[in-house]
Design a protein that fits this description.
The chain is α/β, with parallel strands linked by helices. Helices cover 35% and strands 28% of the residues. It has eight helices and ten strands. It has a seven-stranded mixed beta sheet, with helices on both faces. Strands 7-9-8 form a three-stranded antiparallel beta sheet.
């Protein structure tokens, strides 16, 4: 599976040194209310789900990675997490939440998710990389908007979201290992060129550009 001890620690360090998840949760809260049930698919380490739960929202968060779920439960102490493959949605919810997870443009995914929930909140990253100039996914938002625009039975709202999710790294050895594991050895030098030295080691900047799609059927 994706999550091992080192990746979990790196993600935990980035989460602790930024307010990325708090800001993302704030944005999501603008599109839901506390009377709605939320089912998150692909929650990963569950940071946003934890914030939403502590803010009083009714959320169940799921992922098919056992290590991720165990970490989320251990960190938060909450019983909102469960091991689940997203292809087997068990119950209906008012809101299906997918944060940097899933592909609504493929197969019959959009219809399947709309069957499971009255509304979808789908967050997509505009780039894959630690900075704007590397691994940019040009036109991702426009591609999804084009796909949704061909559907006469749905409505959707588009909300840009940008926040810092920079990665702290303890030394150059760890920085090289992080870049190699996360982005491949072939572009290691390009990524390392963006490293910033800090009092405690290094920081790899990551201004994360994303888009939130809120999608619902017209008759609703």
């Amino acid at each position: 599976m994706w999550w091992d001890n080192e990746r979990i620690r790196w993600y935990r360090d980035a989460s602790s040194s930024t307010v990325f998840h708090r800001l993302l949760a704030n944005e999501i809260e603008r599109h839901v209310n506390k009377n709605e049930s939320i089912l998150e698919l692909g929650c990963g380490l569950g940071y946003v789900a934890e914030i939403l739960a502590r803010d009083g929202y009714r959320i169940t968060a799921t992922d098919n990675d056992r290590a991720a779920i165990c970490e989320a439960v251990s960190r938060s102490g909450l019983s909102i997490y469960s091991l689940l493959d997203a292809s087997c949605i068990p119950d209906k919810a008012d809101v299906i939440l997918m944060i940097f997870f899933g592909r609504i443009t493929e197969n019959d995914n959009l219809d399947r998710y709309l069957e499971a929930g009255r509304k979808i909140i789908y967050a997509v990253s505009e780039h894959r990389g630690q900075c704007d100039t590397l691994r940019k996914r040009e036109g991702e938002t426009e591609r999804i908007k084009s796909f949704l625009g061909k559907r006469n039975d749905i409505q959707y709202r588009v909300t840009p979201f940008t926040a810092d999710f920079s990665q702290p790294l303890r030394n150059m050895e760890e920085a090289e290992r992080f870049v190699k594991r996360m982005y491949g050895d072939e572009r290691k030098d390009q990524y390392l060129a963006f490293l910033q030295e800090t009092e405690y080691g290094y920081m790899l900047p990551n201004r994360k550009h994303s888009t939130l799609f809120t999608i619902w059927r017209k008759e609703e």
